[in-house]
Design goal:
The protein has 351 residues and is of the alpha/beta class. It has two domains: 169 residues, Rossmann fold (3-Layer(aba) Sandwich), CATH 3.40.50; 151 residues, Response regulator (Rossmann fold), CATH 3.40.50.2300. It is 39% helix and 18% strand. Helix 5 links the parallel strand 4 and strand 5. The relative contact order is 0.18. The structure holds beta-D-fucofuranose. The site of beta-D-fucofuranose has 13 residues, from helix 3 and strand 10.
């Protein structure tokens, strides 16, 4: 769609409107490493008082990391940041378990970490539900548990702290970018959106989907297709291909991570379509995806920081030292579009 109606003057207008309203890519009122719960000394106010300690006296804190899987570039960078940071030189040992995107296996993984007697658990949950019994077991065993990357729907007194992205804010950032684009370009065509969702039941999917589901009726946008691509390139390609075969019209792709975006672009090309004819909205900010923004293939990426290892390490050290830890801390996140991609690509994560 975009190249079909987009005039040069309109592009200039968009660049102006984005810089005019608050400097370079200031996202809508997102977080900035902010917390939305009052700080608690080791979560005391929330009924949680466990803190990481070197309980076996070997001179290191052993972190058991229950990771989601290896589904995406974001995930690979996330895992690597833990493997690089949680080393003896930094005062840690790491036990790493990969759930292969299987929520049931992951519950068993956490139980294995409890049985091994690790000194702190970091859980990056595949999905957000059904965790109460396992978290209670960790608490009963006296092992502090940190939630990272994706949130949980459990009561505050079952974990020490959450550290990671604010998924709904990321979705709102993407949605606002589309609203601004439509306004700046006087778009009058109906907006028909192909929506590729992440792993159903993960807060990364729920937050990003909610932002679009809320915005679509309010803006008179049609979501013509909504299906999970499970955060993988292969599945993103497969579901886009199956939609293309239906021959329905669409002009916007809202893809909840970069890997599914790569798959969707491959599917468009395989069907003889030019990806540059579509508004493509993505999430994460892998280096290759940011390069695609530079090249005009992807229009905007709502950023999500995967390099959580050192930041979680800092939180653990603070809690161990008796410092106050916020119940929730969100990463700093903004967005990447044609106005800043050339700069952002220099420091983007991954390949
Ligand atoms: O966006 C996606 C990954 O939970 C934020 O999971 C994470 C998401 C990320 O597979 O690429």
């Amino acid at each position: 769609m975009k190249k079909k109606f987009l005039a040069t003057a309109a592009l200039a207008a968009l660049a102006f409107s984005l810089t005019a309203c608050g400097g370079t890519n200031t996202p809508p009122p997102a977080d900035d490493s902010s917390s939305d719960a009052s700080p608690t000394a080791a979560g005391a106010a929330s009924g949680y008082s466990l803190v990481p300690k070197d309980t076996n006296g070997d001179g290191f804190i052993t972190l058991g990391f229950a990771q989601v899987g290896a589904e995406s570039g974001w995930r690979t960078a996330n895992t690597q940041s833990y493997k690089d940071y949680f080393v003896e030189a930094n005062g840690f040992k790491l036990v790493f378990l990969d759930a292969n995107q299987d929520a049931d296996k992951q519950k068993q993984d956490v139980r294995d970490l409890i049985a091994q007697g690790v000194e702190v658990i970091d859980l990056a949950p595949v999905t957000d539900s059904g965790w109460e019994p396992v978290l209670q077991e960790a608490k009963d065993a006296g092992i502090p548990l940190i939630v990272s990357d994706r949130q949980l729907s459990v009561s505050d007194d079952l974990y020490l702290t959450y550290f990671g992205g604010n998924m709904e804010e990321e979705g709102k950032t993407a949605v606002k970018w589309l609203q601004d684009y439509i306004t700046a370009n006087n778009v009058t065509d109906p907006i028909n959106i192909l929506h590729l969702q992440g792993t159903i039941g993960s807060t990364a999917q729920k937050g990003r989907t909610k932002a679009l589901d809320d915005a679509a009726p309010a803006n008179d946008w049609n979501i013509v297709f909504q299906q999970t691509g499970e955060f993988t390139q292969a599945k993103g390609q497969e579901v886009t291909e199956s939609f293309l075969q239906q021959g329905k019209d669409f002009n916007v792709i809202y893809s909840e991570n970069d890997d599914m975006t790569y798959g969707a672009i491959d599917a468009l090309r395989a069907a003889g379509k030019d990806p540059k004819e579509y508004i493509i909205i993505s999430f994460d900010g892998n280096k290759s995806a940011v390069q695609m923004v530079v090249d005009g293939l992807i229009d905007v990426i709502a950023e999500c920081d995967p390099l959580l290892g050192p930041q979680v390490g800092d939180l653990i050290k603070k809690a161990e030292a008796g410092e106050q830890i916020a119940k929730i801390t969100y990463s700093n996140e903004s967005y990447i579009d044609s106005t800043n991609a050339a700069e952002k690509v220099k420091t983007a994560f991954g390949s």
